[in-house]
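Hey,
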Amino acid sequence: MFKDYYAQRGEYVVISAEQASRFAKGVAGDYNPIHNPDARRFCVPGDLLFVLILTKFGLSRQMEFRFTNMVGADTPLKFSEADDGALHVCDESGKCYLQVVRSDDITHDPSVVEAFARCYVAFSGKNFPHYLKPLMEQHGVMFNPKRPLVIYDSMGFTLERLDSFSPGLTLNHSSLEVHGKRADALLEFSIESAGEAVGVGSKKLVVSGLCDYDADEMAAIVEEFYRLKAAYESA
């Protein structure tokens, strides 16, 4: 699963800028410029780390992910499990990028793990413009159009079961809390399988470098998003 988006080098995982960018666009539908290989502040998508955690350790009924640092290209990452079952993604110096707390039943069934990973990533990739633009417009703020920065803070979910699973995610509620030049966006979602509710979850994003909302600037950013999407899909 997802083996085209990383390289295993001994006990470390290494993700190139090209692999990360291809995952962002091709799997998540995420055209955030911070994932472009030539971006000055390039970072590996948090959703790729999420996918690799599920691939390596399985899917638990309850999981909480906290993203603590941004991962640069070609950073050797060690995915490890502590005695208490907590998971960590750290580099060679011990700097931690992702912490995961999990509980309850676990499945390693590849079809179940991949189905959940793909449906969550597809949902998560719609952060902008689908979810964030209406929130920013409502609150009269937006990110700096010259340096848009939206950072993954955390996410978690609870599942009622792991068997007979063909999941889909739906946004239930979204909110934005503005704190000066930054804002916290909370996206709450439901998880369904074959029309039946099987779980709930939420994710938190941090929007930095806030300025007053400018409809023309935002329209240009959204237009560029769809231009990049069309160019990628036609390539």
